[in-house]
Protein: Cytochrome P450 protein
Amino acid sequence: MSFQLGDQLMVVASSPDIAKEFCKTNDRIFSGRHLPSVYHNLPGIMNSSIVLSPDCSKSWKLLRSIGQNCVFSSKAMESNAWIRKAKVMDLVNHLRTNEGKVANLEDMMFATLANIISCALTSRNLFDIHGQENNEYKEMMALVNEVIEKTTTLGLVDFLPILKGIDFWSKKKAMDMYRKIKQTWGGIIDERKSMGRENLSSTPDFLDIVLADNTFSEDQIGNALIELLIGATDSTTITTVWLIVELMRNQEMLTKVRDEIAQAIVGDVLNETLLSQCNYFQACIKETLRLHVPLQSSVPHRAIETCKVNDYVIPKDSMVLVNAWAIARDPNYWEEATSFKPERFLDSKIGYRGTHFEYLPFGTGLRMCPGSAVAFKNIQMLVGSLLHYFDWSLPNGADPTTIDTNEKYFTTLKKENPLLLIPKLRKLNSTV
Ligand code: HEM
Structure:
């Protein structure tokens, strides 16, 4: 399917075969990113991006490889396991002291995930999870949404480049956003530059490595950090919320997950290795990522040169979208495609690493999400802990099987209404 909007051709791949043509057969050619004009007005962002790098440039490779060392690789995930555990236990303790009170799960998940990635990147928490009355993380969630919206939404000038000279609006939007990004990381970067790793553990983090490399300015480091923060929080938060919604609506499945976790762990302490052996729970996570693909049209790709795909000529600079949402609900590939059926993944070889083109929640090819395994670990630890340590009920005693599944369309596909639940500590063999 293709659309011509002004000067811009937009091509959408909505079947596994076409997705394969774009992201495997012609992967290099479609490895560019299509970016709205607002992006070009952000100081320092050029050559300091992973997600929004216009092509697979030298700086993209450098940042991806530093990310690989500090966050994405198996070795990095292993050395960051203590961070995941500590931040999830902070949340568990916070909920324990607020037992019986309504919790907004999206807020809680976001704050915890932001602290996990911020500690891995800069050895610093972004929020005090217990001090929620100051609502710092609400402001950060608003900034995350703003950056996603402004860097992914196309405006008139993107379709009619002739208007570029008079596009003061994009410049203003970009500068407002830039100021907020600077505020978020400026203090942390300055502190590291002046004090080094004083009072921090001896292992260098992402911030140490990019500072030592001397390739990037402070603005550029701030941009790279905000991109990684967004990558690591937004889609993962969405998935944890949908997973809990689906399990609350299907109480038998919820009991099955809990029993599986209880049998796998030792002494009521959740452990990542043991959790990853809980096959039914893993299948529930995969099914959530199928039915509720967070980035339904991936992140827009760009043809870096003209190319022929299935006899169609796709001109250089065309925008290419992979409709992972439509593919994951295609009845030709999925039985009862719109139902939540984790069992479908139990005896299936279909994985999330981008080699099965009917299931692409993390994309595929050169620009595939490098954080897929990190996301999986975060989801299993967060949701596993919340289900293991607490019973959950709806405000006013409402029936959990009636929780709505209305979606709110944004760049990512969120639950429309907040998931408000009341935690009650479960009686376990030992205390948390
Ligand atoms: C459920 C959670 C997640 C989902 C569904 C998801 C999905 C995606 C998708 C669809 C893309 C674009 C792929 C493409 O262009 O073809 C992407 C890119 C990216 N993601 Fe994720 N992601 C998740 C979690 C994470 C995490 C935890 C991190 C970091 C720790 C991360 C970092 C990134 C980065 C840096 C890119 C840009 C890759 C590039 O352009 O080279 N993501 N993600």
Observations:
- Residues 50-51, 71, 117, 228, 231-232, 235-236, 239, 294-295, 298-299, 361-363, 367-371, 374-375 surround protoporphyrin IX containing FE (CB under 6 Å).
- The mean pLDDT is 88.
- The radius of gyration is 22 Å.
